[in-house]
Amino acid sequence: MLRYEWRVSFATEGGVKAVLSCMQEFPTVTHVQQLALATLKVITGASKHDLRSVGSSVPLSESGTQMMLEIFASIGSATPEGSKGLLGAVPAAIDLMLQTKGCMLSVRNGLLVIIMLISNHKSLAEQLVAAGVTATLKKCLSLSRAETMLAIIALNHISMVHKLESKECREHLDFKDTELQMLVVSLKELAATKEVIQTLEQLLCDDTSQLEDQRSQVTHSRDTYQDLVRLIEQHRADRAVQLSILRILNKFLDNYEEDMLPWHESIEPCLSSMTAFISDREVVQLFIRFLYRLASLNKDYAVVMCRLGTKDALGKALDKHGTNLLLLGELRDLVTDCEKYASLYKKMTTSVLAGCIQMVLGQIEEHRRSHQPINIPFFDVFLRNLCQGSSVELKEDKCWEKVEVSSNHHRANKLTDKNPKTYWESNGCTGSHFINIYMHKGVVIRQLAILVASEDSSYMPARVLVLGGDDPTNINSELNTVNVTPSATRVVLLENQTRFWPIIQIRVKRCQQGGIDTRVHGFEVLGPKPTFWPVFKEQLCCRTFLFYSTKAHTWCQEVLEDRTQLLQLFNKLNSALRHEQMFADRFLPDAEAAEALGRTCWEALITPIVHSITLSESSAPSPLSWLLSEYLDNAESARRCKSRAAIFNSRVRRLTHLLVHVDTSRPDGEELKPPVKSKGLNGSKELKNSKDGKNKETAAASSSSSSGQAKPKVKSSSSIAGIALCWQGVVQRQVKKFLESSCSLPDFVERYRTLYLRLKNAMEELFGQQTAFVLALRHGFSAALLHLSILRAMHVSERFAQYIDQMVQASGAASGSVETLERLKQFLEPMLFLSGLELASTFEHFYRYYLGDRLLAQGNVWLESAVIDHIGSCFPSRFPQQMLKNLSESAELQQEFHLYRLQQLDRCLQEHDQMMEEEWAESEEEAEVQVLVLSPRCWAVSSLCFLEEPANHFPAELCSYLNQFTQFYTHSQSMYGLSHSKPRRLQWTWLGHAELQFGCWTLHVSTLQMFILLQLNTHEEVRVDSLLQATGLSAAVLLHALLPLITEDGPLTCSSPEDPTQGVLRLNQQVASRSECGVPLCVRLLPRQTYLNVDEDAAGTLERKRSYVYCLIVHIMKQEKEMHIDNLVFKVLDSCQKRDASRSPGSPGSGPVPGSGSGSGRFSCSTSDVLSCIMHVISKGCVRRNEDNPHIVEFLPEDPSTPQKGQAQFSFSRAGSRTDADSSLMSAPRQFEDGVLDTVLFSMGRTMTQEEVRQLMQRTVQQVSGTLSLDLDRAEHLLVHCKWNVDLLVQRYTDDPDALIMAAGLRSRNPQPPAPPPPAPCAWAPAAEPRSRSQHSAACTTAASRAGRST
Asked: Where is the composition biased (Basic and acidic residues) (predicted)?
């Protein structure tokens, strides 16, 4: 109902008559009358006359209002003579509401309806007077002020507008005095409507009324005069109101007395209104006559007119109407004669103002220095007058010079006539309509808005683009884009701009409903403050900044000399801020002035202090870093209240709370920057800026040298940014120290969790939970982890994955507690710091390994999904997520297989209808079996676990199920392969778990343990070596599954417990008897989780891989000189794949640690690995990024004058073995990346001795041997063949190792053709699940069987 205009249609169809008839039918029912009056108020749109809720509802349009009044008039004219008719129901309803308690709202609704009906229709007024409305209105004169005002307005229309009261009735004179007083009060307290102003005009300007004393009192009232001046601005677009106010002001001017009223305040509103109605001769004539009278009475007002641009306004009127305007020439002559006085007034005001400002600023500065009270009389009043105007807006016609439009230039003045009913209409194609506003020089826009109207329909703008420019040919800086809603009337386009734009362009890009031309009813511009507050603010901020910045630098020097003085900063800062707060509370008039002073004081103090205490010129920590470190060291002892540590930490907390509670950066920092005038201040600002630049360079250098991580995402110029960066450094040092000292301890991860909680709690105590410090905590941890060596990083990653594995298993056990889950949750928070680091790939590898063991041993549990969801960002390849998804897909496949078996059973029964039911009943119950179909893309399954033929190892019942599943899977794959790639097949493995019935007990075992136990169903004793021969597994794998079975409480015994591989397995009779006689029990015999041993060999293999990639990058860049980084990545990956393909196919697959297999292993690397190596080569100075195009990398050529410039500084891993991996972690870690090519960079500044040459040759041989995985003899032979040119050797070996080896004579050419390669293990045969055809490509799939319920 708000969206569509329904009221006229409702009234036309008889709605109004129905409401009035209802009121007449139930005259004594209060609720009916209340609802009826409220309905009539809505239907007639009478809310616009409500003094308390102007604009609360949508009024009727002019045509709608006229139609509504005619409908009411036709209803009243149909009333027989002598009868009140239907219209009489309205006054009768008001009488009933007056007699009913608590119905004042309904009385107000009725009065509004009465005013609506009689204000613009004399016939309706006559009909209502005949219905007795006058008596009802007079009863309302004794009500509250709002209702009395409405009654007075209605009676005024009846008696004075329509002249309907009879001459015999003199009662209306009895309330004239009260009416006048209430009208005057309503000008101030209520939103004065048009009717109030016109009624006041009639009472004041009617010479026949007998209210001379009251009129004289009103016309001398300063408050009433100022209210009228304010209403000129408020009702600028209403011609009738302007004329009424102007007549009232002329009445005031008739009783002119010197200095009685501030007449100068009315000049500017009158000029604005005259400009708005410049085309209306009558209005312009009345304004000119009023201004001429005012200038004739006192020439001071003529001076004010001269300063406000009256001459220009008169010139516009003369151009518009010629000489037809009376008194225009006389007024212009008066203003011209006063121009010299206006100039003298301006100069005198400027001189007096400058002297006053300097005096005030001097007193303020002396007050700051001496802390003595200011005892100058009226100083507070004077200062408040200086600050007056801080909340005043510059009027829009003072902001711009001229306006240009895209078309229909003759209607451009409609944009500035202040009349919302007129508009400028464009003419052109869609998107070509614009308005150019030329701003006065230096005016910064505080707000820009346009006026639109929903009645314009398709002409109404829908999307507006605002552009700024310096000249008409260069308007291309986009400032804002606004979408206009269909119901909007005033659309704000710009707010609080920070720079001056000479030209602002408003471009209409699209109209509502796809319209072409557009209509704009006007625009409004608010500029900066018009008073001398900006000047005083500039000087005040300048002096304040100088004073406190000097004091701050003094404090900084004290802190640099003695860092314990840092604890005294809180008292000093607090004292200074409290002093300024007391000054602002006493002298400054409003919040804006106090905020300007406070922010300047804060910036002057905090900016140099933060820069000084957060940076250190030497290698020693900065003062704030020292303070925060001491706080962390005292955290434990500070728990005792009143101890020295507690007092120290309390002071630290108070200081940090004060430093970070307000940030010194703001988006509109230009406005708040202390102004620069004098030469001395310029020097100070230059010094401050140079410090800022130095701080930024130092911060950037420390960031790049420490971790390469981004700083906390706050503005670099803010105080919080510097403090957060300092906190990041403290966290990094704490974590780095902890990792170096505690990495090899058994409870390392628990200590790591405790460290994180301690640092997190300290952060919240010191800084709260601000985003900048949360990010700094994260970046500190990340930077410390990035400093780990490769071996230690792998060790830490494995310990993290191992701890999560232990917590998950402990939570799933019967003894799991809420405390365990809480510890796990606390540890997962710092685990997120691995996200985005290279360390995350290593962690994902170990986590994937342990997750696979858990899932295959105990199935999927809810905690696994929760943990992976929480730390999912730590898995770059998303292997854990894919593993869980693979399990769900396998469950769907198992359900499909179940349906498939039911279909096969139904078909079999249908073919054997004659079979007796007894024969079916005698068949044994099948074991419950499930098959997990795993994808090798996410599951790390070693070929050592492959099971070639399940029928050779398991009972027929179990094998029958597996055969059926194989047929089902093969059938589904063959159907899938008709339209896609080659079908995939299953590769069975020994992985999985089972449940076996052992008497009354249920044994939870692995698939391999199930195989061992099932052997004893048919044999009394089984030799272990026969099991090894039957399974083909290694002794370590078999013993790992066997040991839980031959424990004291296990179901089996072994004849040789010391060496089970030589023993014989038998059934444990004691345990068997207990299982027969005991209660049902679940016994878990699953093998314990085995954790990987991150030894030096694994790290060496990984380091050789990294060194090879380093050398490959340098080799490629030497050839290409310059290339896109993506092309470089693809080229390195292609070379790695070729090298992997050239390896012998018999090499083992991937082990638990990448590349830990025997021999050279599989050489696979990902895109993230190559990118990491490229970043490392860039950091070492071998290649660099192009400054203009950062995605282009360039090779840096050798510089003979600087031997190490342009060379990659890497190190090769040395082939030394250590027996104790943990002890190697305790020693100083070898820096694998200290310089791979040091050995090829011969000294160019002197001649080497023979011993130095010999040592260099040995190092070169060892490093080339480690890099290319060659023995020392072969490496030396190849170096001799290549004349000790390492670059040439690496290049030729990378391109074709076999050709190089043959050329060097290390291998003879074999004339026999090479033997065909052995077939690939069936583990890598292609296979795919039917349920996930869209996800799987040609990747290989491994299948793990899970057997259960087998006896």
From this structure: 665-674, 685-697
Region 1099-1113: mean pLDDT is 75
Tokens of residue 969, six digits = 């899977």
Residue 267's nearest CA partner among 288, 240, 241, 238 is 288
Strand order in the sheet with 503-511: 400-405, 433-439, 503-511, 461-471, 474-483
Q: What is the pTM of this model?
A: 0.56
Cα–Cα–Cα angle for 1163, 1166, 1172, rounded to 5 degrees: 110
pLDDT at 1154: 32
DSSP annotation of 1250? H
Q: Is residue 225 within 8 Å of residue 257, measured between CB atoms?
A: no
pLDDT digits (tens, 9 = 90+) for 914-966: 554 555 544 556 678 888 888 888 887 777 788 888 888 888 888 888 888 88
Phi, psi of 1338, deg, nearest 5? -85, 25
Strands 490-495 and 503-511: unpaired
Place of tokens 């990987």: 1092
User: Is 503:462 a contact under the CB 8 Å cutoff?
Assistant: no
Residue-wise pLDDT tens digits, 1262-1288: 888 877 878 888 888 888 888 888 878
Q: Quickly count: other Cβ atoms within 10 Å of residue 1270's Cβ.
A: 19
- At 277 the three-state DSSP class reads coil
CA distance 763 to 777: 8
Contact 987, 1342 (CB under 8 A): yes
* pLDDT of amino acid 926: 66
Give the model confidence (pLDDT) of 147-186 as tens digits: 877 887 777 777 655 555 544 444 443 445 556 666 776 6
Helix (H, G, I), strand (E, B) or coil at 871: coil
pLDDT of residue 519: 92
Find out whether 427 and 493 touch, Cβ atoms under 8 Å: no
- C-alpha count within 13 angstroms, C-beta hemisphere, residue 551: 21
242 CB-near residues (< 8 Å, 6+ apart): 232, 235, 236, 273, 277, 283
Residue 1099 has pLDDT above 60, yes or no: no
| Residue 1317, pLDDT above cutoff 50 | no
The single residue listed with the structure tokens 């899932």 is 855
How are strands ordered across the β-sheet holding 1064-1067? 1021-1023, 1064-1067, 1052-1054
Q: What is the DSSP letter of 56?
A: S
979: which 2 tokens?
């339209």
Cα gap 649→636, rounded to integer Å: 11
- The residues facing 1342 across adjacent strands are 934
Sign of the C-alpha dihedral computed for residues 56, 57, 63 and 67 taken in this order: negative
One-letter amino acid at 464 equals V
Cα(244)–Cα(490) distance, integer angstroms? 27
- What's the per-residue H, E or C state across 697-750? HHHHHHHHHHCCCCCCCCCCCCHHHHHHHHHHHHHHHHHHHHHHHHCCCCCHHH
Q: Is 873 left (phi over 0), alpha (psi -120 to 50) or beta?
A: alpha
Instruction: Please name the amino acid found at residue 238.
Output: D
Kind plus residue range of the DSSP H or E element containing 595: helix 591-614
